[in-house]
C-alpha cells in the first residue's frame, strides 16, 4: 500500500456508544461480557493482550460512523477470539494504536487517514 493512503493521519477520540441499547446489542455476542475497566485481581486471564484491528476506507462516508462500525467489528472479533479460547468475559479493553495503549473510559481511539480508518483494540480473555 502506498504511504499516501496513510498521509496526514489523525487519531480521533470517538465517544463510546451505549452498549446497552438494542441496536448495539444486536451487533455483539450476548454470551461474552465486556468490561472496559481493569478486572479484579482474583480473576486469572486465559490469555492477555489479544488484539483485534479493523480497517476500511471512508470515501463518501462520515468518518465517525465508520469509526463506530469498526469499533463494533473489533469488539465482535475480540469476543470471537474469547469464545475460541473458552472464555466468557473480555476485560481490560483498551485502544491500541501505533503500539501505544489508551484505557477506554468515555472515548475510544480511531485513526483516520486520507482514505482509511483504523480501530485497534487490545484486551484480556477470562
Rounded to the nearest angstrom, the radius of gyration is: 15 Å
Order of helices and strands: EHEEHEEEE
Q: The CATH topology, please?
A: Translation Initiation Factor IF3
Structural domains: how many: 1
**What CATH architecture label applies?**
2-Layer Sandwich
**Mean of residue pLDDT?**
89
**Distance from first to last alpha carbon:** 36 Å
Major pleated sheet: 7 strands, mixed
CATH top level? Alpha Beta
Q: Could you state the CATH homologous superfamily?
A: Hypothetical protein apc22750. Chain B
- Poorly predicted tracts of residues: 1-5
| Secondary structural class | alpha+beta
| Share in helix | 10-25%
Beta-strand proportion:
35-45%
Number of E-type strands: 7
Q: State the helix count.
A: 2
Principal-axes geometry comes out as globular
Amino acid at each position: 500500500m502506498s504511504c499516501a493512503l496513510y498521509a496526514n493521519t489523525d487519531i480521533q477520540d470517538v465517544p463510546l456508544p451505549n452498549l446497552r441499547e438494542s441496536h448495539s446489542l444486536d451487533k455483539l455476542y450476548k454470551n461474552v461480557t465486556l468490561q472496559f475497566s481493569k478486572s479484579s485481581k482474583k480473576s486469572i486471564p486465559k490469555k492477555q493482550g489479544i488484539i483485534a484491528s479493523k480497517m476500511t476506507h471512508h470515501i463518501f462516508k462520515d468518518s465517525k460512523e465508520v469509526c463506530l462500525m469498526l469499533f463494533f467489528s473489533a469488539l465482535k472479533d475480540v469476543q470471537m477470539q474469547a469464545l475460541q479460547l473458552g472464555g466468557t468475559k473480555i476485560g481490560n479493553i483498551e485502544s491500541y494504536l501505533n503500539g501505544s495503549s489508551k484505557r477506554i473510559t468515555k472515548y475510544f481511539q480511531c485513526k483516520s487517514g486520507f482514505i482509511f480508518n483504523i480501530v485497534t483494540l487490545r484486551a484480556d480473555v477470562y
